[in-house]
Amino acid sequence: MEDIATQSAGYLDMELLRFTTAGSVDDGKSTLIGRLLFDSKAIFEDQMEAIERASLSKGEENVNLALLTDGLRSEREQGITIDVAYRYFATPKRKFIIADTPGHIQYTRNMVTGASTANAAIILVDARHGVLEQTRRHAYIASLLQIPHVIVCINKMDLEDYKEEVFEKIVKDFEAISAKLSLIDVRFIPISALNGDNVVDRSVNMGWYQGPTLMYLLEHLPITTDLNFSDQRLPVQYVIRPQSDEYHDYRGYAGRIASGVFKPGDKVKVLPSGLTSTIKSIDTLGESLDKAFAPQSISLTLDDDIDISRGDMIVGEENAPKVAQEITMKICWLSENPMVLGGKYTLRHTTKEIRCIIKDVNYKMDINKLEKIHDDKQISLNEIAEVTVKTTQPVFFDDYKRNRFTGNVVLIDEGTHNTVCAGMIVAE
């Protein structure tokens, strides 16, 4: 029992990597994930038996590993990915959450939602076709969402006789795109998802490639440095007032740390009031901490009795976020109902909800050509634009590039209560 408890504790303490896949239709995204799961021994026997039966029913000679992620019946019938499919697995090094996102342009919103929390993006390129318009679109979305690491997998190298010059040409073409975008860390790997070359095991067919396999890279990407540990930001989610004699004077401000490191004795400021105080204690369930950092969920107590409620934010005294009622942000429209210029929406930012109107459309983005369109104010489903909104109350925010947590918002239709827009704040 002790060994099991030790192993369980070790599993819970393992680092978690979230990654998303993107690529043009039939580039092999689902097959690649199936290969990752299969070669890393992350498939249960009943899952394997199910996809073997499904492959036979489709008349396929070999097991179709793509069926591991193409879970919807319509996806299996059409042989494409429609919805975002999430899969979970672990190796001795890390835990992983995979978001297999669609490649079709009409499912751009699915890719945006699936990739919004990713540490890394895998962009697949078919070695036969090279960089396509959809490749540029996926690279732009990775840049828009500020995904810290991008891994470009040149797939189906077996169909190009594993030629190094094919790989090098695609690398050069993609680098020409990434030079125009704010991609942070880009890696390239030549693979064959069908045969397993350079996915989990090193390829014997591409001795000219001396870099890591995809699995090795996923296990060793330095993701802890991606978090913002310099800007203290704690959006208040709940005020804890225990109704007991033992804790009758306890007043804790609970929430998930968006960024920064908090320690007892730190001078902090409360927004929107602007009042300052000192951290008395940092508590979690059953214990007090000497320090806490993103993305821990904690409760703070302060030396001073300040009126604080849900939607307020506790920040560093000398390092506060921007405060404004007029916000510029890049958006992806998620609703089938077009955006209404001048329309009223609910803006949700961290733990705060306030009303707003869309004041102006600064430009719409042609993400296939990477060009801005300034004379078109109509924003429809899956389209990306930069807009300015006016809120009824001040918002405390950072530029999305600096802080993905305090720099993102969603807009909600007040009539239907549907989420209609994902926004990335531009504040620099």
Topology:
Blueprint: H1 2-13, E1 16-23, H2 29-39, H3 45-57, H4 73-78, E2 85-90, E3 95-100, H5 108-115, E4 120-126, H6 133-144, E5 149-155, H7 164-178, E6 185-190, H8 214-220, E7 233-235, E8 238-240, E9 252-256, E10 261-262, E11 267-271, E12 275-284, E13 287-288, E14 292-293, E15 297-302, E16 313-316, E17 322-333, E18 344-349, E19 352-366, E20 371-373, E21 384-397, E22 408-413, E23 419-426
Parallel strand pairs: 1-3, 1-4, 4-5, 5-6
Antiparallel strand pairs: 2-3, 7-16, 8-9, 9-15, 10-14, 11-12, 11-16, 12-13, 12-15, 17-21, 17-23, 18-19, 18-22, 19-20, 19-21, 22-23
Structure in a nutshell:
The protein contains eight helices and 23 strands.
Can you walk through the features of this model?
The protein is of the alpha+beta class. Helix content is 20%, strand content 34%. The protein folds into three domains: 11-226, Rossmann fold (3-Layer(aba) Sandwich), CATH 3.40.50.300; 233-316, Translation factors (Elongation Factor Tu (Ef-tu), domain 3, Beta Barrel); 322-426, Elongation Factor Tu (Ef-tu), domain 3, CATH 2.40.30. Strands 7, 8, 9, 11, 12, 13, 15 and 16 form an eight-stranded antiparallel sheet that branches. It is globular, with a radius of gyration of 24 Å.
